[in-house]
Fold this protein.
Amino acid sequence: MLTTTERILFVLMALILGGLTAILFYGIYKIIRRGRPAPPRENVIPSLIGAAIDVLLQRPMFRSRPVLSVFHAFIFFGFSYYFLVNVTDVLEGFVPGFELIYGGQGPLEPLPDWPINLFNLIADILSVLTLLGMIVFLVRRFITHDKRLEFNEGVLLNPKVQQGWIRYDSLIVGVFILLHVGSRFLGQALRLAENGRPDPFMPFASAASFLFRGLSEGAFTFGIHLTWWLALGLILLFLPYFVRSKHIHLMVAPLNLGLGKPGPRGELDPATPPGSDDDAEPGAKYVQDLAWPRLMDAYACIMCNRCNDVCPAHSQGLVLSPAAVEVNKRWLFNEHFADFAYRGNLPDMPLTQHVISPEAVWACTTCYACVRVCPVGNEPMADIVDIRRRMIIEGEEMDSGIQTALESLAKNGNWFGKGSRARARWTKGLEFKVKDVTKEEAEYLWFVGDTASFDARVIPITQTVANVFQQAGVDFGILGRAERNSGNDVRRVGEEGLFEQLAEDNAAAFGKAQFKKIVTTDPHSLNALRNEYGPFVEENWEVLHYTNLLLELFESGKLSVSKPLSHYRVTYHDPCYLGRYNGEFSAPRKLLEILGVEFQEMPRNCENSYCCGAGGGQIWLGITPEGERPAENRIREALDALAPSSNGAAADDKQLLFVVTCPKDVIMYTDAVKTTGNEGKIEVRDMIQLVEEAISG
Amino acid sequence: MNIVVAIKHVPSTADELELNDDGTNLDFDEVDFVLNEFDEHAIEQAVLVKEAAGGEVTVVGVDVIEELDGVLHTALAKGADKAAKIVGDIEPPINSHTHARWLADAIGEMGPDLVLTGVQAVDDLDGQIGPMLAAHLDMPYVGVVTGVSASNGSVTVHKEYPGGVMAEFEVSLPAVIGVQAAEKPPRYAPISKIRQMAKSAEIEEIDADEDFEYEGCELRQMAKPVSAGHAEMLEGDAEEVAEKIIALLEDRGLL
Ligand code: SF4
Ligand code: SF4
């Protein structure tokens, strides 16, 4: 179909632009390799295959925004299919008489019709769906102005981003896709029109072909050539732009998903690269101090802001945006591409000035929601922790509350500023003596944790746990004054050295104690003990949450309900470090079922649970940031979920409860109920309080 | 500038304090020791002066319970350059005269331009170490200082008086300064740096002059205050509280 000149031109373009693109892609590879080593990726091939399947099924997309994800799937399938379509289109251009319409023309004629018809049918349908999807995306960005694509005021953004370059990039990509797919579709319609008869296997192109019937022969030739070039020449022209554009996600995202972090979610990557020598600085000051997967994240990011949607800090209106972390890194690479990729003279651009502001660094609760929701497998939270690590080691100024807590933790092993001898004082209120496992053997070591040991609001709950365990005949003991804070939040604040000290102290205490399993009410301790104590302890003890143990006790008949709690309508909040981090969703829900309460989920539950705002050291902050706090937002969500439905369901006089299974949640939500003025409407209860009520009725 | 910081290891009040059996002092086996809070400010101020004017910071203290190393490592991690401890057959309590004598002996050898110390310590509330050091070393003293800046040959110090009046002194060197608060809150010492110091730093040991004895005054008795009753919170709305107050007053025959 193409003239000789056109052919030569296309081949030349392919060679030159293809070559240029190859060099640029190599540049991206080099940039990613500038990052520090990460823990080795194991089973890479199976993991890449798994990622490919996930991508094909669009699974990571459907973690949020289901409707938009459908339109994305249209574009995804269309675009993927177009890899094949592009090949056949090139053949149409280069092989005389080669045409796909009517089951194959020219050299295709001898072949059976049905595979070609099927191919045509799919191409025809997907072309239309892709165009539809793309139009929806452009409309929501440029016409209905979806607010979720914006950033909070005060978020540190690369100047280019502030000037609107994400929008321009989206427009360029959008128009490219419309032209690429649209032209191909019109090209086929023109062919059908030229032949004067529709092809039943190309229903949409056939319908469009009626528009062009009656054009002159010259117009057909011109149109077919033009649409061919707009579909295929455009791709070549666009290739080098790919390297700058966020559209490159279509290649990097599957890789990024396949090369994702090995090991459990709750185990942070080490502060210095594995295998580095002793004087390697922990954490990151410059972008090249980050591990290579963090640099790859920047290339995988599609700038969808799904992570912002679920971020408690961003939702509160604070200056933290996990998306901006990726976006800014990416623009840094775009702006200094040659330096990073080829020259190796890396610009002196501290992350805290160019990627995320110190204020934002200290606003992260390490709730993992951004990582969980990101459809391309990015981990902005990991960048934040690494930046904290370096800030701490370099003595950068930090929030006074966090500093006070860390100093107390270093001195006393707890953040309450109390001496270690006071740790077991809560047991004084019990009618029996709690075993000291460093002196007496017990089946369960109960790791109590700071909040449950020291906070006056939580101590009665801790005592109730002890009473219920005792009543059920659980053989348990505590470490008493030998227990230290687990270090979970210390590590997430970035104080790696203090975490190690605390873990070593606890490990030494475990070494002296005799027990079989560990149980705790505190999800933060659970996370550290379960996932991060490997290097410190000899033995790999099973670490249970008290909800697991309670469930066991009910199932084995050691506890039983004597008074079902049907007078309560309750909802349940999944603590980040229990649920999202450690996958413990079912025990609390089964318990509630056993207790006989009326249970109602909140819209954000299980994996999508919304952080209470206390994690990652936020509970220590000396200042209270402006805006609706995450816990307040959550209480409102709970009240909505528990409200008798407006469509006629009878209002009853059941008492509404907000059930928690984390000592910090007791504090955060009791407070939030007060500050939102909902006292009397809803009450915060720890699971153990319900258990106690039900078994002693 | 050669800056020396004199510090003191004092009983921690994080725990409830236990008294010894004859009620003459704390039960020192049952208390943890920490760095005196004002001395933390003295260290911070010394490091700030060094950062601004150059020089070297040496931290020195009496090793009362043989656990001073941790404190010294922390000071080194915060930016001090050298550390020394005064050792010997020492048992708490050490009174401030003895403390000052030993510190002065050690510091005199160091040839300091500037000596900083906390304005007082929580264990005796004497506030005497600074003035006595100055007397022993024959140097001028200014206490209750909230900021020190150095210029050639002298330092400028700030002091806050009650009633919101600020004073600025120029003190010729060498001098002893009693620090109430550093210009900035004491910085955080990352544990990994402290641990590095613990591995690599050398702490000079200076022998205490154990023959020195001070017999000016003696601590006769130490006891916890007997609570003189407790406050009762009146609960309820304004009306109810008012009624309760009236009832109380009537009850006591005051109305
Ligand atoms: S990090 Fe992930 S969720 Fe956030 S904007 Fe980028 S692609 Fe979207
Ligand atoms: S971990 Fe949570 S708080 Fe931190 S950036 Fe991600 S979503 Fe926001």
Q: What stands out?
A: The mean pLDDT of chain B is 92. The first strand of chain B starts at residue 2 and ends at 7. The radius of gyration of chain B is 23 Å. Helices of chain B lie at 37-53, 68-77, 96-110, 129-137, 191-200, 238-251.
